[in-house]
Design a protein that fits this description.
Layout lengths: L24 H4 L9 H9 L2 E5 L4 E3 L7 E7 L2 E6 L5 E7 L4 E2 L13 E4 L3 E7 H10 L1 H27 L2 H18 L8 E3 L4 H8 L3 H13 L3 E3 L3 E4 L2 H10 L1
Antiparallel strand pairs: 1-8, 2-7, 3-6, 3-8, 4-5, 4-7, 9-11, 10-11
């Protein structure tokens, strides 16, 4: 499974953060740029335009025509959907090596969600027509794009299923388990049962489609039930089995 915001870039370098119930996904599917030979990356860079964005600046806007993809060189990009009512839900936070701008790759159609810089970002924009030419010329790059789209498809499919079938309490429990699990997979000593506090209550709320106040209140209930300990530098998971039961039952 695998999102966070303006001030701090959540999670380990190179991993995206999103709500998904497949904990092995990041290891099996590295970011696009990690799958390509250095010579291929250099070719891509030669056809790209470098963009530097400050926190909060839009990468692309929901409803605007696709123009290509944006490879993240530095920083974190948040993708999100805005309903006609104005309510937003965060889809994912993508980090270095990933790209945003799909699902259309070659400049057709319109964006069905938006993206913004969640921290200061350096992006490489590759126009759709150039991307099409590169994919025709280099099979490794074309296969990398396909693999990346498969990952994104699995992520968003799982997100839709979880949001559509689990109440907010279950979504929060699942997200806490996923974040703590990712710390463990990243090999950080003593972090096997912790969610780092640079992932804020607001960020957790945006991912599960709730509010910061509700997340804070629910974490307090989890703490009273002995499931977690909310500390200054981390949310420590005390009872993973209990959280999994909360995730399953909602």
């Amino acid at each position: 499974m695998h999102p966070a915001t303006a001030a701090a870039a959540p999670g380990p370098q190179g991993h995206a953060l999103f709500l998904i119930d497949e904990p092995d996904l990041p290891e099996e599917n590295p970011p696009l740029m990690e799958t390509l030979h250095l010579s291929v990356r250099q070719i891509i860079k030669g056809h790209a335009t470098t963009l530097r964005l400050n926190t909060g600046m839009r990468v692309f806007e929901q409803g605007q025509p696709h123009s290509g993809i944006f490879v993240i060189e530095q920083g974190t990009v948040r993708t999100f959907y805005a309903a006609p009512t104005g309510k937003e839900i965060t889809l994912a936070f993508w980090k270095e090596g990933h790209f945003v701008g799909g699902p259309e790759l070659f400049g057709r159609g319109c964006h069905v969600w938006s993206a913004e810089a969640a921290s200061p970002c350096v992006l490489s924009w590759i126009p759709g027509h150039q991307l099409h030419t590169l994919a025709l010329q280099n099979s490794a790059f074309a296969l990398g794009l396909i693999d990346a789209l498969i990952v994104k498809g699995r992520c968003y499919s799982s997100l839709a299923q979880i949001l559509g079938t689990k109440p907010a309490r279950g979504r929060l429990a699942e997200l806490l388990l996923a974040l703590a699990g990712r710390e463990a997979r990243d090999g950080k000593p003593g972090k096997e049962s912790e969610v780092p506090r640079h992932v804020t209550h607001e960020q957790l709320a945006a991912i599960i489609g709730s509010t910061r106040q509700w997340v804070t209140a629910t974490l307090s209930r989890f703490e009273r039930d002995g499931l977690v300990s909310v500390q200054t530098d981390a949310i420590v998971i005390l009872n993973a089995r209990g959280l999994r039961e909360a995730s399953a039952s909602g």
